Amino acid sequence: MGFASAFYLCLILVFLLPVSVVAQTSQNITLGSSLTAALNQNDSWKSPSGDFAFGFQEVEAGMFLLAIWFEKIPEKTIIWSANGGNLVQQGSRIQLTTDGQFRLNDEQGKQVWVARLAGTGSVSYAAMLDTGNFVLASQDSTNLWESFNLPTDTIVPTQVLKQGSSLIARYAETNYSRGRFTFELQSDGNIVIFSTILPPNSVNGGPKKSTENDPPYYSTYTVGSDLQVIFNQSGSIDLEAKSRSILRNIVPSRVSASNSYQRAILEYDGVFRQYVYPKNNSVAAGRPMAWSLLSYVPENICKNITSGGSGICGYNSYCIIGNDQRHKCLCLPGYSYLDPDDELNGCKQDFASQSCDGGHDAADLFDLQDMMNVDFVNLAPEYDYYAEVTEDWCRQVCLSDCFCPLAVFRSGDGGCWKKKFPLSNGRIDTDFVGKSFVKIRKDYSTKTPSDEGPGKGSKKKNKSTLNLILTMLLSSSAFLNLSLLIATLWAVHRKRRVILVQPSRAIQGMSLQSFTYKELEEATNKFDEELGKGACSTVYKGVLDIGNNKNLIAVKRLDNMVKDNDKEFQAEMSAIGKTNHKNLVQLLGFCNEGHHRLLVYEYMSNGSLASYLFENSRPSWYKRTEIAFGTARGLVYLHEECSNQIIHCDIKPQNILLDDSFTARISDFGLAKLLEKNQTRTLTEIRGTRGYVAPEWWFRNKPVTVKVDVYSFGILLLELICCRRSFEQDAEDENQKILANWAYDCYEEGRMPLLVQEDEEAMEDIKRVEQFVMIAIWCIQDDPLLRPTMKIVLQMLEGALEVPYPPINPHSSV
């Protein structure tokens, strides 16, 4: 208790000290002082250290923004502005008048902006502080107005957002007027990010009123009073209670503000990002210093959809995450940006829509273009849904419907959604096993008969003649019979082609595909490329050809199956097939043919956590914490949120796979019941080492509960913290061979920094390291009743619950 109290006291002092020092060393700006906007002039009011400056920045040709910025870096990055929606011209002036008014007047002397005082006293001076806060103060140094209390889109270390405060994104990267997105600490204690307005000049209804906000696409789901968001000197951004206890860690980065400049900004694309810039502005590796991204929320904005409005990317477009983890908004085929300079503004259709009058705009003038893994989620406008249909049927029902601009088909269960115009919430989602069909006019014509202008009479006449001929033909019964025959033959051909290129079949009541052994043998080239091998299975790399696309898969061949268990196998496949979570490896299908039992999974490009953690260079502390969060969320889903509770029974680094973005994905869940009993207990060569298996299962043969997964997760968490295996035979110190015992010794002796002593990033976040170690010790208690549930574990990891001190000895019950 003494160590903890001292630690928190030091933390409070570290936080308060820079503020008090700055207040004492600020350079006062006297009444009557002013600044004038001028070209090629660097006149500004600087903070005592010179880190920040207040004045005018030219952000457009001849147009100026009254702002605060980082002064010592070449970019002069802006953190606050007064007149983003009303830029001023050269000759405009900001003045602290002799009567204490702080006003911005344009070049003609018209007031553009004025500081509204919060207190009742009179202003005696102004000051630009070293924290980045600009203040107007009274004679007794009481702040009557401060920029920190009126943030725009950015916060910096020591800045606090109180309940009811918000950040509003700028409209574009270089447009500082109010944008589309808001970050808000609401009066009920919930932190949300939501879309505030539609782009102006939209063809889809124009801007909303400022009071009409879309539901949030990010939320912390926190509740309370007297809460605040604080950007700590340690680099973390936390939601804190009045008691200073952390309720939620919003971004997990921990980089000391003493050695770097930092800022967190709600950027114009709707993502809240934290950046760091080294204070030593030297040239490293031939490149100048620059802002580096530390962390951001939401993790994947393309998947954080809303229940209404235009979505993240505007209407008629779809969202995709790039290699730089930033999202792009792309137009659908046959569509183009409303504003080529603003991709978030949505897209317009570049061809005449299908007519419903049965004339020249009949269905045969249109085609559907496939877009693999593109989903327009259920909250997007839709007006019809069909279950258990074929892909070809879904195509035809949209093509023949003049109201249908796009249909979404889900391969797993044969679901078909017809969407209506305008389209919203489109995204590329590798977890979505299906495609969208976009209706496009075959000739891509953007003209309709009413568009004909002067000099086009002959074309109009020819078109009218063609329409007349078509009308006569369409009225002919012989033509109708011939058309019906051709359409029938074409539909049969399409159906046969779809079956040929789609070797799998959907099983009724399951969102999985049933494969033949021959199909998987061909897909894996006779099982020639082995990805991994375990005690009960071997995994092979394969490729499935679907249409014009090649999809990588992982095929797991199960050995030592329980004999005569066809019904149990089918039941387990049904349960696994109903799972759907971003932290689980998606099971795509299976083979249950004779003695062959094979499972088909999506391919994970970055392999297993075991390889990532132990075989390569040490992953960053931030990435390891993200993997811990992801694994915990996946286990919470398996234990409490999916329709049938699933106990994994084999949580270990080899069964945590990493996708393209290194997100943790749990594999092999739901298989424990399918294996012979001796296959679910992997023996270890090290006598007395429990490994990842809970003691009640290994030694006492007690019934398996979710607490066995909690125990395994505790061992895994220690491995993530220390970046080493749970047992190291070659450890120099005998006491460090078993990681769990060493971690407990370090905890008991107050020497937890020893666990990460060679990890500079983790050392800077030592408070979190200590909390994670304590959580792990709770997880590996021998008595399963003492272990928390995975939901509580996740809440402690995220900071929503305080971590109590673990019992004296985690193995006291042995």
Automatic annotation (TrEMBL):
Domain Protein kinase: 525-808
InterPro entries reported in the protein's UniProt record: Bulb-type_lectin_dom, Bulb-type_lectin_dom_sf, G-type_lectin_kinases/EP1-like, Kinase-like_dom_sf, Prot_kinase_dom, Ser/Thr_kinase_AS, SRK-like_kinase
Single GO MF annotation: carbohydrate binding
Keyword Lipid metabolism applies: no
EC number: 2.7.11.1
SUPFAM superfamilies according to UniProt: alpha-D-mannose-specific plant lectins, Protein kinase-like (PK-like)
Family label: Belongs to the protein kinase superfamily. Ser/Thr protein kinase family.
Name of the featured protein: Receptor-like serine/threonine-protein kinase
Native source species: Rubroshorea leprosula
